[in-house]
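Consider what follows.

. . .
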Amino acid sequence: MSGMFKNCYSLISLNLSNFNTENVTNMSSMFNNCYRLISLNLLNFNTEKVTNMSGMFNGCNSLKSLNLTNFNTKKVFDMRGMFDGCNSLKSLNLTNFNTENVKDMRDIFSSCKTLVNLDISNFNTGNVNDMSYMFNGCKSLVNLDLYNFNTENVNYMSDMFKDCNSLKNLNLSNFNTENIKDKHNMSDIFDGCYSLKKNNIITNDKRILKEFDNKNY
């Protein structure tokens, strides 16, 4: 089902109630650039065999709500850009997501400009290698609690919170950046975070604080 509805620019509604997805392994870019799609009911989707969800909702500019409470993501290894450009979504509850096998989260929430509420408290990031641009352009996020994030295997973190203009509180208490060998892979991590103060970042990682001191407005 990779790219199945990709670039269906004029699509406003979609009835998928009879879809049998029990054997599907690839849903990457499935709804990519469905610009005018306002709602999407995926409650009947069986995703237990899916391994790739990269770009699945990328560019769904008009999508205002998304219920993924039934999604089984245990086998997914790629979530790169999954919600990139969903700039009408105001809240997203992903507490049911099992991300223990995910290796790529680059751009997963990038350009979600109106996202105010984001619950990823159950994210298991122990195998994630790439978190660059993860929250880039999330201009409406005020609070972000990533206390549960395990970053010991992350090699790329550049631009992770770039242009989170409204961000005021950030919990990175368990962040470990020891495996990021190239300093460029942590560059611009806080650029454009002009509402964030250093004393509102919870972290014991000295490199994180150094990058905050080096940020550009």
